[in-house]
Design brief:
single chain; alpha/beta; FAD/NAD(P)-binding domain; 2 domains; seven-stranded mixed β-sheet; five-stranded parallel β-sheet; 22 strands; elongated; binds flavin-adenine dinucleotide
């Protein structure tokens, strides 16, 4: 791959909250930036997994619905006028010489002076129910994510799972549904303590040591057969919808082969968000270092750290500390 003439200062791989904020911040530092993501939509995990969920721990918002946060992030990022390339899966990363990098995807070759990897948990898909018969109801009442809360108004919903996703959806959908039952195969929840406390105080019927055995109904779900995994007793619940929150599997894909120092599928970075490869930085959920916490707020901070150090890396005469922001206008995208 040759550098070509379409050379960018910074290419950001991953357009979740971290990548979007990094794109905006790169504009503030005058970097010509490109944003690449394998999904068709911007917003990462928020868009794909919980667009309708309330988020309570982002600075500046006492609470905000996921899709609204993404909308704000996209508006902010687009002020910086990054080139956006969606539905592109990365395949390779080459050193082109002269401090240039070549990022290869299934659709294009991107030449860049630096790369910021913000791929979160990698390419992710929800874990399905093990039963093909249950999965045959996908789109007919069985779902793995909620796109529109309104679609659940007055419905009887069964939620399966015991993590944050299951508990958060139970709380978020409580005002919409006629009735929610949440089943979990153990009695301990992996969700945030405060959310579990709220769940116990809510109208959601929580049944522990229960698993989903089957769903029935034509053409859509009308009942769910659940069973108590200790007593081995079955129960039939009349339901209109089943939400599976069994976690998700993710894969780093080719990024694993790029010679980056990894720790348990996370990229090891230093306090400047540099990886072990010159010109390659990482931020957000994909990174690890002592004390790392994987949250949206942390991704924003890491994006700002990374971009400021990238600006300095590209032009050592530029101070990593940007000074304090004043005017809202952004420098037009230009090469440093
Ligand atoms: C159910 C649930 C609820 C949550 N609630 C909260 C909350 O209330 N507060 C909070 O702070 N955090 C919450 N989180 C965590 C939060 O979503 C993450 O910390 C945040 O999304 C990380 O942002 P990111 O941009 O680093 O990664 P992601 O959001 O994962 O975005 C990464 C992007 O990279 C893309 N990508 C991945 N691999 C590739 C590849 N090989 N090629 C191209 N593109 C790729 C993905 O498609 C994705 O768009 C929650 C998570 C879940 C699952």
């Amino acid at each position: 791959m040759s550098a070509g003439r379409d050379l960018y200062d910074l290419t950001i791989l991953g357009a979740g909250p971290t990548g979007l904020y990094a794109a905006y911040y790169a504009g503030r530092r005058g970097l010509r930036t490109k944003l690449v993501d394998s999904l068709a939509e911007l917003g990462g995990q928020i868009t794909a997994l919980y667009p309708e969920k309330w988020i309570f721990d982002v600075a500046g918002h006492a609470k905000i619905i996921g899709k609204d946060l993404v909308r704000n992030l996209v508006v902010q990022a687009m002020e910086a006028r990054p080139t956006v390339c969606l539905e592109e899966q990365v395949t390779g990363l080459e050193d082109l010489g002269g401090g240039l990098l070549g990022l290869r995807t299934n659709k294009a070759e991107h030449s860049t002076r630096t790369l910021l990897i913000a791929i979160g948990i990698g390419m992710f898909t929800p874990k399905p129910f093990p039963s093909p018969e249950i999965n045959a109801y996908l789109g007919r009442g069985v779902v793995y994510s909620v796109r529109e809360k309104e679609a659940y108004r007055d419905k009887r919903l069964l939620i399966v799972g015991g993590g944050d996703s299951a508990v958060d959806w139970a709380l978020n959908l409580e005002p919409y549904c006629r009735q929610i039952t949440l089943i979990h195969r153990r009695d301990g929840f992996r969700a945030h303590e405060e959310s579990v406390r709220q769940l116990k105080a809510s109208t959601v019927e929580v049944k522990v040591f229960y698993e989903l055995k089957a769903v029935r109904g034509e053409p859509t779900v009308q009942e769910a057969v659940i069973f108590h995994n200790k007593m081995k007793a079955e129960e039939v619940l009349p339901v209109d919808a089943v939400l599976g929150c069994l976690g998700f599997s993710s894969k780093l894909g080719p990024v694993k082969e790029w010679g980056l120092t990894l720790d348990d599928d996370s990229i090891v970075v230093n306090s400047r968000m540099e990886t072990n490869r010159p010109g390659v930085y990482a931020a957000g959920d994909i990174t690890t270092y002592p004390g790392k916490v994987k949250l949206i707020a942390i991704g924003f901070g890491e994006a700002a750290i990374a971009v400021n150090h990238i600006a300095h890396y590209l032009n050592p005469a530029v101070d990593p500390f940007p000074g304090y922001t004043a005017a809202p206008e952004l420098a037009p995208a230009r090469a440093l």
